[in-house]
């Protein structure tokens, strides 16, 4: 697959995404600056598209970095407790401050996502049996433990209602003023690209990296910070989107290998294309209502993931 | 020159390397031999800074290796540990290019590309440079990793059991290439070997370890004799001369 093909697909899908929804908007309506259609276009459709693009690229790259650094193809923000830790952070911030501000939520969520992912990497360091399937299983169990703590605290504090909104990844509520946090992931994505070579080298193991004079620990920590930044911004604006960080990098790895300098652009654009398709489907299936994107992603993603598992065990080793 | 001075390392309470002092002669192949658990790999890891010694020091050009900047050290000393477990999908050329990382940080200059070309040529990998590592056989993979180390262009090349899992043909190929690296390019190779006959036939000097202690250190001809080998391996090892090579015939020895 070529990058320009993915690019064209992304542009076409973006265009489609802008012009579907409960209210019909045609390009002609936009000529009238004062019309309701233009208004909806600016406060709803464009923010939604930008959110999809940033979340799609961000989560895919976060997954790629985690797979590289953990040297396991099946580790991603959803299979290593990163997102569960971020959610726990949000809840703790709500318990901690009576009138929690958005900034406080962001900081807590980021700190927990970072600490949670770091802890997982520490666990990974200590286990001897590093099977491709075993490691993500530990990650999922670990995530579930974090998540059950969140649920328990949420239940005790009567905040379960609030919690469920982050459980469900959806672009339905994205309007101007509610998604701008996602812009924070742009510098993280750029940094990820600049660090691509370092992540690739680190992905070959500590001994290998140190032979080439790379400060392994530093690169590892930078990688984890980038993953935490991206995950936090996505969870707080869109919610949890499963599978994205898992399957997109793996598909790219299959046809392009693991040299991150080469694969990061593909991973980003494929992530956008995949998320756009899922979101467009979600909006069309029961039009004029919507199926949240995490449902369509989960259905399509799990099918792809299962296929990869069945056909690709040899590859993942 | 690399000088190992009084190096000691304990894992928990168990000493793995005890008070080892060895000087690595430049322009030679030096083999580390010894029974299992002798501390050969641990010693190599400390020389290459992958492990920190408890006491003692390793000097590279009279300077403690700990004091070297990582990127400068990586231009002088390279180490290849057993790398067959790596599951990273890189092409041969990409892998070899990473050998230039200490110089280029990933942005290869024309000069870097030339080193990469030469290394690939040297290891006879030109016709498979676009293949992914996971499509290669064990021997080809090992050659690709050695090509990377050649591209790294260090004076010292440290290899931890590079013949592991290789068949006879590929083992001989690798050893011949190492010999060429020393004879033609003036490199210094330090290698941990299990097969004593490869050590006998290809190395200039042998360092024999046992239970973490240095047993013998000298030219190959002094080490490969039955008396010395009995001390190291606790077995009677008859030696036969064959085309000027000393071959240890240990297969039916009393143990």
UniProtKB/TrEMBL annotation, chain A:
One of its GO terms (cellular component) is plasma membrane. It comes from Cytobacillus firmus (Bacillus firmus). This is Iron compound ABC uptake transporter permease protein. Gene3D superfamilies: ABC transporter involved in vitamin B12 uptake, BtuC. GO terms for molecular function: transmembrane transporter activity. It comes from the Bacteria. It is found in: Cell membrane. InterPro entries: ABC_BtuC-like, ABC_transptr_permease_BtuC. Transmembrane segments: none annotated. It is a multi-pass membrane protein. The keyword Cell wall biogenesis/degradation does not apply. Its main location: membrane. One of its GO terms (biological process) is siderophore-iron import into cell. Belongs to the binding-protein-dependent transport system permease family. FecCD subfamily. Keywords: Cell membrane, Ion transport, Iron, Iron transport, Membrane, Transmembrane, Transmembrane helix, Transport.
TrEMBL record, chain B:
The keyword ATP-binding applies. Keywords: ATP-binding, Cell membrane, Ion transport, Iron, Iron transport, Membrane, Nucleotide-binding, Transport. One of its GO terms (molecular function) is ATP binding. One of its GO terms (cellular component) is plasma membrane. GO terms for biological process: iron ion transport. Its main location: membrane. Pfam families: ABC_tran (PF00005). It comes from the Bacteria. It is a peripheral membrane protein. It is found in: Cell membrane. PANTHER family: IRON(3+)-HYDROXAMATE IMPORT ATP-BINDING PROTEIN FHUC, PETROBACTIN IMPORT ATP-BINDING PROTEIN YCLP. This is Putative iron compound ABC uptake transporter, ATP-binding protein. It comes from Cytobacillus firmus.
